Amino acid sequence: MTALLRCLVPLARSGPYGRAVTRVSATYRVAPGAVLTSAPDTAEDLAEVLVHETQHGKLAVLHDLLPLHRAAPEAVHRVAWRADPRPLAGVLQGTYAHLALADLWARAAAGRTGTPSARREARARRDSYLRQVAQALPILLESGELTPAGREFTQGMERHLADLGRLRDPSAAIGGTSPAGDVR
Fold first, then answer.
1. Is 184 a domain residue?
2. Which stretches does the entry tag as region Disordered (predicted)?
3. Is residue 132 one of the residues assigned to a domain?
């Protein structure tokens, strides 16, 4: 994070017409290294926002350098983390960000410094993100809209998911039996 995050922009916790919102965060493709966010409730929530939004920035830069998909904006897909259907670009962005969050919480769950309660919460968050990513990867791989580089990138995410699943339960790896790999 220290190598990538250059600017943290505070946002108000109000939405349109002054309505209160629980949490707002964003990144802009034209401003890699900047994260916009309302004040999270806890340090853990701040870590999650920073990891999530930094992943969006990283993937946007990578896609600009090496296109990962030729997705039509009108093609939409259902994902576990949003109520509204997402274009393939949004599925790819969300999958990459949620995989990093699964990794973050897997590390927290495995840590020795947190309380038993904190480690339980980390395991629950990890498992939720693992399920979300496991549900989204087939959408990407079966879409036909990934470039060869995008397919390779997505297969790398699939391998990382399998590794995280093995850490969770060595007898049942989420994401199949792909060989070990890393997408960090």
1. no
2. 164-184
3. yes
> What are the φ/ψ torsions at residue 139 (nearest 5 degrees)?
-60, -45
Rounded to a whole number of angstroms, the CA Rg of the chain reads 17
* DSSP-H helix ranges across the chain: 43-65, 88-110, 116-142, 148-168
CA–CA separation, 164 and 178 (whole Å): 12
Number of structural domains (the chain) is: 1
- Tell whether 174 is covered by a domain: no
Contacts of 23 (CB under 8 A, 6+ apart): 13, 37, 38, 40, 41, 45, 49
What would the mean pLDDT of 81-108 be, rounded to a whole number?
95
pLDDT single digits (tens) 104-162: 999 999 988 889 999 999 999 999 999 999 999 999 999 999 999 999 999 999 999 99
Residue of 47, 39, 35 whose CA lies nearest to 22:
39
Range of the domain at 133: 66-168
pLDDT at residue 182 is higher than 50 = no
**pTM listed for this prediction:** 0.85
> Which residues make Cβ contacts (< 8 Å) with residue 9, sequence separation at least 6?
34, 35, 36, 37
- Is residue 41 one of the residues assigned to a domain? no
